[in-house]
């Protein structure tokens, strides 16, 4: 079954879109603003990886998050996340990421997204494998622009920009 959520505006919620068992669907051209949890959250600890699969999350605007990730791909497989603008006007104070792939998220494509003012921009956790992350622009990370805790993923052509000098230490090389 194909489901499509297009041109929605979801504001002032705890979690913008909570998607547990979703397959062969799309979330496109929607706006998530002022959420205090994940703007788009997938999967659930009671369901195995792959219950959320083959979903396209494209061309969405996620702005002014008060906490949580912009897009949290928990247990997501074969999902494409592309062309999203995940931008906070002010820096978020927790440790979440603009795009986060935890809990055995596998074989996802994350490309051509802009992520700004999250502590971590892209965070791939232990157990996430086969993910292809490329062509993203990440700006102003206070912790890490990219944090990877798992083998078997591909990262290419991502651009990291730090315009806030008070957070620039994460980009500095370690001196011997």
TrEMBL record:
<dbReference type="InterPro" id="IPR006626">
    <property type="entry name" value="PbH1"/>
</dbReference>
<dbReference type="InterPro" id="IPR022441">
    <property type="entry name" value="Para_beta_helix_rpt-2"/>
</dbReference>
<dbReference type="InterPro" id="IPR011050">
    <property type="entry name" value="Pectin_lyase_fold/virulence"/>
</dbReference>
<feature type="domain" description="Right handed beta helix">
    <location>
        <begin position="54"/>
        <end position="164"/>
    </location>
</feature>
<protein>
    <submittedName>
        <fullName>Parallel beta-helix repeat protein</fullName>
    </submittedName>
</protein>
<dbReference type="InterPro" id="IPR039448">
    <property type="entry name" value="Beta_helix"/>
</dbReference>
<dbReference type="Pfam" id="PF13229">
    <property type="entry name" value="Beta_helix"/>
</dbReference>
<dbReference type="InterPro" id="IPR012334">
    <property type="entry name" value="Pectin_lyas_fold"/>
</dbReference>
């Amino acid at each position: 079954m194909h489901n499509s959520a297009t041109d929605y505006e979801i504001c002032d919620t705890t979690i913008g879109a909570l998607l547990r068992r979703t397959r062969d669907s799309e979330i496109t051209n929607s706006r998530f603003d002022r959420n205090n949890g994940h703007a788009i959250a997938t999967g659930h600890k009671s369901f195995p990886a792959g219950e959320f699969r083959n979903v396209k999350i494209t061309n969405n605007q996620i702005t002014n998050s008060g906490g949580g990730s912009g897009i949290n791909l928990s247990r997501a497989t074969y999902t494409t996340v592309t062309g999203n603008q995940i931008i906070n006007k002010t820096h978020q104070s927790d440790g979440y990421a603009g795009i986060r792939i935890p809990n055995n998220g596998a074989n996802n494509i994350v490309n051509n997204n802009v992520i700004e003012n999250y502590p971590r921009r892209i965070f791939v956790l232990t157990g996430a494998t086969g993910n292809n992350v490329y062509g993203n622009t990440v700006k102003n990370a206070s912790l890490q622009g990219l944090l990877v805790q798992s083998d078997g993923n591909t990262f290419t052509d991502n651009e990291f920009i730090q315009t806030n000098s008070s957070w620039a230490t994460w980009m500095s090389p370690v001196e011997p």
